[in-house]
Amino acid sequence: MQIVRRVDKMEILRQFTSAICLIFLFAGYSLAAEPSIVEASSQKCTHGLHPQPNNGPFSVFLFCDDALGSNIGIILTERGAGPGNVPLNDQKVWQTWDTVNRFWQDRKWAADVINFVWSPSQRYLYVATSGIYGDGGFFKIDLREHTYQQLIPSPNAPYKFQLKDMYYTRIRTIDSKNKKIVVEISLWDPKEERVATEVFPFE
Fold first, then answer.
1. 43 and 20 part of one domain
2. In a 3-state reduction of DSSP, which class is residue 63?
3. What is the value of pTM for the model shown?
4. Which comes out higher in pLDDT, residue 161 or 71?
5. pLDDT at 104 exceeding the cut of 60
6. pLDDT digits over 5-51, tens only?
7. Which residues contact 27 (CB under 8 A, 6 or more apart)?
8. Number of domains the chain contains
9. For 140-167, what is each residue's pLDDT tens digit?
10. Are residues 22 and 104 in the same domain?
């Protein structure tokens, strides 16, 4: 009788496990890790390699350079310099990176970084910077196409006249479900006055 009871318990366990798997499958839940904001400024800076979540092909090397600010470089760490799980373009080609072209820095977005976050699609890196040693703007870096776009300040931003050389941006929150990223623009002054808050698609 004890052997029969043990078999019954194992069968119940198998059925329960199968039911849980079906729930996740049909409800459309994803077990993938959610993106998280990486803080780069001052004491929050963690020097070293910061890989993309979910085994993405890229990593950011964060340089905690003390009085010279926090600076970053992007590295394609995938073996063979392939695209990994980054979505390909319509032509299904991967031609902007290769085994001897896998490191990327541009002073515009790499200098004096406040914080950064990987996009849910793995295609983009969003970077907020400071205007002390860097630009101060907010950037959307297209990892697939090896290009970038400055989102803050935009040419027609109503607050642009308030900005001076000493301002900075900070990624405040991200919402992967609703695909939104919230960014604050502030002045480097004793009060660190907030100038504006912008919301962008989080792709």
1. no
2. strand
3. 0.83
4. 71
5. yes
6. 554 555 655 665 555 444 444 444 445 678 899 999 888 999 999 99
7. none
8. 2
9. 999 999 999 999 999 889 998 888 768 9
10. no
How sure is the predictor about 99, in pLDDT bands with cuts at 50, 70 and 90? very high
Burial of 133-167, coded b for 16+ CB within 10 Å and e otherwise, reads bbbbbbbbbebbeeebeebbbeeebeeeeebeeeb
Shared domain for 18 and 104, answered yes or no, is: no
Q: Where are the alpha helices (DSSP H) in 75-124?
A: 107-110
**27 sits in which H/E element:** helix 2-27
Tell me how far apart the alpha carbons of residues 127 and 67 are, in angstroms, rounded to a whole number.
20
Residues 72 and 166 in one domain: yes
The whole domain housing 8 covers: 1-31
> Are 112 and 25 in the same domain?
no
Same domain, 58 and 77: yes
Pair (105, 193) in one structural domain: yes
Phi first, then psi, for residue 119 (nearest 5°) are: -80, 155
Kindly state whether residues 22 and 119 are assigned to the same domain.
no
Q: What are the residue ranges of helices labelled H in 28-150?
A: 107-110
